[in-house]
Amino acid sequence: MNYGHAVDLVHSDAGLSVSLRDGDVWDPLDTVIELTWARELG
Questions:
Q1: CA pair distance 40, 42, nearest whole angstrom
Q2: Nearest-CA neighbor of 18 among 2, 4, 6, 30?
Q3: Could you please report the per-residue DSSP string of 8-41?
Q4: 18, 21, 24, 28: which has the fewest C-beta neighbours closer than 10 Å?
């Protein structure tokens, strides 16, 4: 499994979705996603 790398986050009218890389494993019972949000100041 790969940990700690960036993935694509896509916003649409349906909400947010995350695209995993080839080889990433999604365990529907034990998956944690950490979302770090950066905001530009100015």
A1: 7
A2: 6
A3: EEEEETTEEEEEPPTT----TTS-----------
A4: 28
- 12: pLDDT strictly greater than 70: yes
SS3 1: coil
10 beta partners: 17
d(CA 33, CA 4): 10
CB < 8 Å & 24+ apart, contacts of 15-18: none
**pTM for the model:** 0.42
- Least Cα distance to 4 among 40, 32, 38 occurs for 32
